[in-house]
Amino acid sequence: MIHFLHVGKAGGTAVRAALAGHRNIALHGHRFRLCDVPAGDKVFFAIREPVARFVSGFNSRLRKGRPRRNIEWSKGEARAFEIFKSPDALAVALSDDALRESAEHAMRNITHLNMPLSHWFSTDDLQRRRDDVLFVMEQQKLDTDFRHLCRLLGLRNVRLPSDPVANHKTPEGYQTSLSEKGRANICQWYRDDIALYRECITLRSELLGRREFAQLSEADNFL
Where are the domains of the chain? Predict the structure, then answer.
């Protein structure tokens, strides 16, 4: 069995939609982690740079997941969004003495923001299961990486959905970047996640350097 770990706000919704119904591929929800994958089974997942993932996660919950879904805020989220109307407002408040407590409460209560990459695996998990990782996709390169994955899986004529709703893409009109102070604060908050993300990028590079990827490139001019 091959397992997909659905890391939030990293393109997983599109991947799940594209691979739905394929045999021997288990498309798990957000709660399924690397430690839940049976020993010897293969696993793949997509990752996203933590600051960009923070922005996307904030905006997703700000709009309650609409238009693809409509999930009401929790009490903690309602309190957070009453105070913070944009991702940068929350990010900057993490170093504001007057707002820090409210900002930290928001970070711990807004869905996606309170599920760092380390929710799915730790550095130790990644090292221990390194040989079981089939591929690591990067959200910024998802189209290309998904084609790599499909070749590894032996799948043809499988494409990611192009519909922005199906992709759960952030609609226009939402803030998509942070100020310098906001970015610095988020980097500090997710400092452990950033280190883990970099480990994943290194692993991705190693996987791309393996013989099977070179053979795909030679056979299909794929890379």
Answer: 2-220
